[in-house]
Amino acid sequence: MVIAVDGPAASGKGTIARALATHYGLPHLDTGLLYRAVGIGVLRADADPADEAAALAECGFSDALFHDPALKSEAAGRAASMVSAHPQVRAALLARQRDFAAQAGGAVLDGRDIGTVIAPDASAKLFVTASAPIRADRRHRELVKLGLDVQFEHVLHDIQARDERDSSRSAAPLVMADDAALLDTTDMGIDDAVQRAVALVEARIRTAAND
Ligand SMILES: Nc1ncnc2c1ncn2[C@@H]1O[C@H](COP(=O)(O)OP(=O)(O)O)[C@@H](O)[C@H]1O
Ligand SMILES: Nc1ccn([C@@H]2O[C@H](COP(=O)(O)OP(=O)(O)O)[C@@H](O)[C@H]2O)c(=O)n1
């Protein structure tokens, strides 16, 4: 079984994807980490994330980079959002994600284009969202907990800029797949959101079994 979880920044998609992976005993891939790894590579090379060739040169990173705390920073998120708009970068990272989705037994992946591009035939697709101020509040708390000195207004502005960039790019923009179930977590705590996500996946599986 493949479960696709997409949505904008700090909507809770990673939390939900991890919980679904535990619930169904499936491996999980946070695909945002791939774009963050390229973004941080570009920044460390003192290059411009808007430069497609410079971004493409950073696509050969190893999985070890996923554990680098710098990937969590706002700067990495911003750079990731810029490098992810380059079609050649998306193409370079495609096989890694498709291979993960195709492994025996299935997988859970979260990102922006899982249900539309990476795993269009996924058994269940969720599109997780929440209002921008709520998402900014969650991300702000997360960054403060990590010991980073960031202002709420700055995080909100960053999230809104990323929403705009991710939704308006021509290569695999952030859009809800036609056959995805919408999960708005604005007024839900984590436990409620996870319970609702499991219920939506179960409903999807039941419908598929009856088809
Ligand atoms: N429903 C929720 N209510 C409150 N906090 C949440 C909820 N879902 C996630 N969070 C918290 O918000 C932050 C961002 O969640 P995360 O799952 O990483 O989002 P995303 O993967 O969409 O960027 C984390 O600190 C997480 O614990
Ligand atoms: N499948 C994906 C995952 C992330 N991304 C890009 O990578 C950036 C960082 O993704 P992320 O999932 O780590 O970000 P958050 O939602 O956790 O803030 C996003 O703003 C997107 O531009 C993408 O284009 N496609």
TrEMBL record:
Q: Which reaction does it catalyse?
A: dCMP + ATP = dCDP + ADP; CMP + ATP = CDP + ADP
Q: Which UniProt keywords apply?
A: ATP-binding, Cytoplasm, Kinase, Nucleotide-binding, Transferase
Q: Which residues form the Cytidylate kinase domain?
A: 3-202
Q: What SUPFAM superfamilies does this protein map onto?
A: P-loop containing nucleoside triphosphate hydrolases (SSF52540)
Gene Ontology molecular functions: kinase activity
Return the InterPro entries for the record. Cytidylate_kin, Cytidylate_kinase_dom, P-loop_NTPase
Where does this one sit in the cell?
Answer: Cytoplasm
User: Which residues of this UniProt protein bind ATP?
Assistant: 7-15
Gene3D superfamilies in UniProt: P-loop containing nucleotide triphosphate hydrolases (3.40.50.300)
| UniProt entry tagged with the keyword Transferase | yes
EC no. given is 2.7.4.25
Pfam families on file: Cytidylate_kin
Q: Which HAMAP family match?
A: Cytidyl_kinase_type1
Q: Which family does it belong to?
A: Belongs to the cytidylate kinase family. Type 1 subfamily.
Q: What is this protein called?
A: Cytidylate kinase
Q: Which species is this record about?
A: Sphingomonas naphthae
Coding gene?
cmk
